[in-house]
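hey so u asked for the seq, here:
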Amino acid sequence: METQIDFLQWLEPDMAFKILTCLDDSADLIRASAVSRCWQNIVVYNGLSKELCVRKYPQLAAITRVVKQSHDESEPSYDLVEIEHQAYASLFRALKSFPQTYCIADPVSASSTDNYPEESIMNTLDPREKILHRESYWSSKGSDDPEAPETLIYNLTAKLCVITEINLHPFQALFQMDCPIYSSKAVRFRMGHPKSWSELDYDFMEAQECADDKFIWTYTSPIYPVATGEFENRVQRFKLPEPVVCVGGFLQIELLGRVQVQAADGKYYICVAHVQAIGRQLSPAFGLEFSESSDSVSLKYDAEQFAHIMKNGNNSSLSTSLLPVQPPRQLAWGNLQDFLHMVQAHPDGVEYEWVDDDEFEWI
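ran it, structure tokens below
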């Protein structure tokens, strides 16, 4: 057998390190670390798995330490560097392969609400009763300024999620003459974590207060134009340029500009029927722990849960959601006609299509 050599050992350490940083998949880093003790030292003790994660998902730079959750006392102990390597290698894989799901859990606050609780932000989470119950939407207060913005803040299903797309359905007032759509001109999205977790015990919705200044936003999206006009009563999808890791579990939807005046008072309003955040929930395999006293963020890694999810997946992801979209033609007959449609369950006139999950293209 010909003599075989480990070419990395013949290189300067900086050059060997630079070569292995060209690997762009954690699975390749795992394989490389198994080649020899030399390769393992370069990969593990230079933190290449963490470097890869932060390079692809810059929001992860906020994490300061890793804690491994153990279910077995007889499990062999690892040093902190090895634990970090395992955790980040697994996290990188999870960010790309965990099943997609809907990631909004609860509303936190709205910058304003016209009639609370009838037009609360809470109404934006359930799309199933949009036809017969006209109050099932959120409405801002009226403004004389068409550029006045509004914000909606939501708590995500986990402190650590990767979000790929946000969907927004502007509200159409079928109970008003000409059936206007109260859309914003544009939207922008922010993600982050609270400045103080203890302050979130306060009920901002009930108090009708805005919580914008209670958060640190670590990601801000580009501004996306919202389609407006007579036939834009539909779910509008805003795909983020790159998947974004939300470290902290909070999403802000910023509604920029107003297009529709209400005839009754001559003021501009924004109304939203439904919102969705599409992404990957990383718990229970991964979690976060924030320490306000030391200003640190710990990544909690559960190898057993990670292996279980990778093996079995998640059959409950992307459960059915019904979203009304605009019919080909809209008959604008005003309050009386709309009332008759509601009572008669739309036997004629306005008809609705429903968008189900299999009509979406998922990444």
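The chain has two domains: 7-97, 101-282+317-359. The helical segments are 13-20, 26-33, 37-45, 48-56, 80-97, 204-207, 303-312, 334-343.
lmk if thats what u needed
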